[in-house]
Amino acid sequence: MEKITLKDIAALTGYSVSTVSRSLNDNDRIPLETRNEIKEIAKQLNYTIDINARNLSKKTSSTIGVFMQNDFFKLPHSTFTNIFWSTLHEEIQIKGYEPALYLFSDTDDFKYKVSQLFNSGLIDGVIIFSKLLTNKEIEFLKEMKYPYSLLYYGPEKYSEEVFTADNYSSGKIITNFLISRNLKSIATITTDMTPSFKMRTLGYKHALEEAGIKFNESLVIKAIPSFENGVEIAHQLYKKLDEIDAIFSQHDIWALGLIKGFTDLGVKIPEEISIIGHDNLAFKTWFSPVLTTFTIETKKICIDAIESLIDDKIYKKRRIPIFKTLGTLVIGESVR
Amino acid sequence: MEKITLKDIAALTGYSVSTVSRSLNDNDRIPLETRNEIKEIAKQLNYTIDINARNLSKKTSSTIGVFMQNDFFKLPHSTFTNIFWSTLHEEIQIKGYEPALYLFSDTDDFKYKVSQLFNSGLIDGVIIFSKLLTNKEIEFLKEMKYPYSLLYYGPEKYSEEVFTADNYSSGKIITNFLISRNLKSIATITTDMTPSFKMRTLGYKHALEEAGIKFNESLVIKAIPSFENGVEIAHQLYKKLDEIDAIFSQHDIWALGLIKGFTDLGVKIPEEISIIGHDNLAFKTWFSPVLTTFTIETKKICIDAIESLIDDKIYKKRRIPIFKTLGTLVIGESVR
DNA sequence: ATCACCTGGGCGCTAGACTTA
DNA sequence: CTAAGTCTAGCGCCCAGGTGA
Question: Is the CB of B120 under 7 A from strand D?
Fold first, then answer.
């Protein structure tokens, strides 16, 4: 099977290479009849365009690079990564672009890959989904004028630019929900690893204060997100159970660990302690009681990031404001 | 920032474009000193090669396409997909190739993407990880002489070609293990969706027969793999518990569902029923008792598939036999 | 003959300039 | 002037086959 090129089609149809090229690209200058004739032949020959040649000539490829840190797919509960990647994959195609996934390890790797891809015209823009981002990467992108959107994560300094959930409001909504159930002494589990968590904590704090409840630093528990740490925290809190009405776990993974930990200890949820999570992990159905949690608008966030990248930064057609998208409570059985 | 090309470096150093190209590709024909001089300049200018131009000229790209079906990243417990993808990503790089992920939806989509990528020289070989594969895809690859390796899944007719676990032996080992614990009446949960499960069932059957235990068709339970179905099966088996000693769940996800289901019903594991799984999912630690299960050599399987693809099918250097790799038992607490 | 480097053609496609009726 | 094409240069790189010392 020899490779079919425009030349072959030109020879076979008697037209020139440029006419063939124009026809296959549906150029108005070629009469519809000719176009169809050429397309028909191309189809019969199973012609596919040479992507390298097209890119080299056009200096653009209509593809969007999705950059993720390379350990995201190694995490045991990386459902989040998967949801984002598969949503991006779908939505980028809907916008008429090709998605391409790239994993990077560190700043240098990131910079090298990004510049190579942009220089080669292999990507027209980049969507970055990574906790590892520092100011350096963002400044590099700005300096090089590479179109980019930040998805979900971003360094504190540039957090305004990040397409993500409205974490401040979710913290507030969740806390208010607990307060509305007459749960007043609320602990929270968080981490200072990313700005998202800080915002949730801030929302939590303000909700408390607005309800006239004094914010108590000692009720803010810091941990690394993992099921095991959730179990561990349940054991730690076991003795203090009379001082606490509810726990706002800023990530479901801890909340599920809490359910397991407390259940093992014979603590009844929600009778003795209410638990609320954040993220609406699919696993929640594996545990009883079913976790009350909070879901973010993954799909909308992805679409916003993509549209901003394409319409605003690549085409400069319209300005897309960078939204922090509001999520919603998902009521389960773990809150009294 | 104007794009730097070989021409620019040539102009700057006074050498010709071909000398610069050869130097950057470490060609012996250029004296080391010249090479280093040129490389130094290239580095200072932040030169990156134009991938399209290189590929177009060389008709090869040193990249390996990883093809997966597009819904794999949507599954709630797609840890398996993630492990394979991240292992492939790492190991392909170690072999000096670039990994590229492509998701496809159906046969036509698959064929089109594969031929376009091969025609464009964008991939030199392809590793396919998909349940959707039919004879058509394989015959197409063979006809077009595209180098490929089948990973983990493959249509029954070509199952000999698939790099995967030795599912027959795992079925046997697991069943023998149960028998050695004096558990004789063993049910199994399986599906006829893929050849892997059929092989596990066959191993189970042979192990029973070799131990002189009559194979009982009614103890073979068929279901779609999901946690919920595991729970459901626990409820179904509740009344028959005196007839069954152990359950060989051919996928951990059912086994974890069983643990939850039986625990909720007040059935003690392993005292009243022994459970053994298959796949060693990371989630197993979330449940008590910790599941006894079986782990397959994911990494080795991936490496075999990659080496076969590169050394055998691309370079035709050496023949790699297609192994079915043996896994190992992972002892937990769910078997008496 | 070897070393060190250069010339030129070509990969397949695109698009602006040009031609012909 | 238009409609329907064709011509040609060029994208950036690689490499076979030179050339001159």
Answer: no
* A-B Cβ pairs (cutoff 8 Å, strict): 125
Among the CATH numbers 1.20.1250.20, 3.40.630.30, 3.20.20.70, 3.40.50.2300, which is that of B167-296? 3.40.50.2300
Domains A63-164+300-325 and A167-296 are alike in CATH topology = yes
Nearest to A148 by CA among A126, A131, A164: A126
Q: A27: Cβ under 7 Å from strand D?
A: no
Cβ of B267 less than 7 A from strand D: no
Write down how long chain B is. 336
pLDDT (mean) for B193-206: 94
Query: What are the tokens at B174?
Result: 């697991």
**Phi, psi at B188, each rounded to 5°:** -135, 145
Binding residues for strand C (Cβ < 7 Å): A 3, 5-7, 17-18, 21-22, 24-25, 49-50, 53-54, 56-58; B 14-19, 22, 29-31, 34, 53, 56-57, 59
Tokens of residue A113, six digits: 């890959």
Answer positive or negative: Cα dihedral of B304, A101, A327, A225: positive
Q: Domain residues of chain B, as ranges?
A: 6-49, 63-164+300-325, 167-296
pLDDT tens, position by position, A213-234: 999 999 999 999 999 999 999 9
Q: In the prediction, which pLDDT does A328 show? A: 97
pLDDT, average across residues B6-19:
91
Rg of chain B over Cα atoms, rounded to whole angstroms, equals 26
Q: Are A104 and A43 in contact (CB under 8 A)?
A: no
| pLDDT above 90: residue A316 | no
**Distance, Å, B122 CA → C9 C1':** 23
CB-proximal positions of chain D, under 7 Å: 3-8, 10-16
Average pLDDT over residues A150-154: 95
**HSE value, Cβ hemisphere, 13 Å, CA-based, for B240:** 15
Residue-wise pLDDT for B139-198, tens only, equals: 999 999 999 999 999 999 999 999 999 999 999 999 999 999 999 999 999 998 888 999
pLDDT at residue B76, rounded to an integer: 74
What's the rounded mean pLDDT across residues B11-23? 91
What is the CATH topology of the domain spanning A63-164+300-325?
Rossmann fold (3.40.50)
